[in-house]
Amino acid sequence: LEQQIRTLLQHTTNSLGKCKPKELATITLSIAKIVNSIREAHERRRANFYHQVFGSVLQNNSKPDQSIFHALAKATDANLPRFDARYLSNTAYAYALLGYDPKIDKRSLAGGIAEKSIDCIHQFKAQEFANTVWSCAKLNVHDPQLFQSVGDSVASKNDLDKFKPQAIANIVWAYATTKIQHPCLFQKVGDGIVAMDDLDIFKPQELANIVWAYATNKTQHASLFQIVGDSIVAMNDLDKFLPQHIANIVWAYATSKTQHASLFQKVGDSIVATDDLRSFNPQNLANIVWAYAENNTRHANLFQQIGDSVVAIGDLSSFKPQELANIVWAYATNNAKHPNLFQKVGDAIASSDGSKVFTTQALANIVWAYAKLDVKHSGLFKKIGRSIGALDDLSSFNTQALANIAWSFAVVDMDVPVAFNHAFTRALLEKENEFNVKDLTQLYRWHVWQIEKSNTGLPEGLRDRCEQPYIKPHTSSARVQNSSSNAHECIKGLKENFLP
């Protein structure tokens, strides 16, 4: 069988020069679908004899055999002027399924398809619009002119009745993925969905992709988010939603700052009812708790279960630095205490070998979270303190990050002098006029603590600025005396108003 397939494929390849556009598009799409089917079968561990045979012919090291598709691409490129809308979109879709964009004479085939599509945009039907922009997004083809033409065409339609739910979702997903703005298109699509009688025809992935696209594209459409949320809440259960769908949905609502209490309750209850969260990957878990915290929504059982799930993991090497930072930030913001989780995360960071690179904001968020919940983890603070101290330039730290770091070390009484060296002082002075009142009160708390430890505190000029928020409401004196007793009195009276 394998030899027969190879012979047929070789004959087809040798005959490509005689193929018409329809035949080229059909052959390319058919083979691409077979390769995609083989890949999905292996991912699901359901590969059978036929998957193995076809895979040995069409793949090379588990990837599409580029020699086959390059030959198809070369024949396609030579015939592009003769391709109509259907053949263009089908061919683009085929290569997007493969994740392969062949270069013909140093030109991207997908880029050539995009250029040709603009010329015949008036021929495109609903599915062809969707396939083309989705394929460009998957293949990282950034063509603003094409996307403008497609957006204008779709937005000019009287209704979206001819667009299937998947087509609608794929279109807005493509614009969000390529970061190409088209407000009229997003307004038209949002209005069209809101006008539908119900959203039962939309699959979970389509609902998730739509709200994700609007949030990612920073496009507000309150009515759309309301009806999507209502539709999900009305469902008997969320069993058909994959962890990625759930995470993307709550992330989208939080990112767009859209409140929908019933939706968050439904999602939280559904996750809690799940016996095992091992199907949720680190990004899913981090995005979910981040979304609840960002949306100012409490769900104690959800946070307990996710915390327990993270603790149960053997090690946290699969978690990216930002995911660890988002998790502890979310728990602290939601005032959700989970000592075992914080111990686990703290141990992981303290023992990291330096291969994980934390952003400045992540470092600030982590120590702030531990201080906010009064969790003392000396290994964590020493590790982060030394990491900060090893930096020659802290200009990448914004004012909030600098203030949060200083405040956090002071609150948990973790004295790591190397963290607050000349580079830290220089960063404070460079941003001296940018600190707000809350920042200044945090810095003054740190200053008092530093003096108590016989360390160097704030430079005089910045210290004078820091004293004002503390002293003005409680004394007629314009300046505070440089003593710990006066400072402690100020802190006692004002920490609830100014400190996190």
Distance N to C terminus: 69 Å
Q: Indicate the proportion of strand residues.
A: under 5%
E-strand count: 4
Q: Tell me the helix content.
A: 55-70%
**Measured on Cα atoms, how large is the radius of gyration?**
29 Å
- Helix tally equals 25
Listing every helix as H and every strand as E from the N terminus to the C terminus, the arrangement reads: HHHEEHHEEHHHHHHHHHHHHHHHHHHHH
The rough form would be described as: elongated
Structural class given helices, strands, pairing? mainly alpha
Which sheet architecture does the biggest sheet show? 2 strands, antiparallel
- Strand neighbour order, sheet with most strands: 1-2
- Kindly state the mean pLDDT as a whole number? 89
Query: Which runs of at least 5 residues are low in confidence (pLDDT < 50)?
Result: 471-500
Per-chain topology:
Blueprint: H1 2-14, H2 21-43, H3 49-58, E1 59-60, E2 63-64, H4 66-79, H5 85-98, E3 103-104, E4 107-108, H6 109-119, H7 126-138, H8 144-155, H9 165-178, H10 183-194, H11 204-216, H12 222-233, H13 243-255, H14 261-272, H15 282-294, H16 300-312, H17 321-333, H18 339-350, H19 360-372, H20 378-389, H21 399-411, H22 422-430, H23 437-452, H24 460-471, H25 484-498
Antiparallel strand pairs: 1-2, 3-4
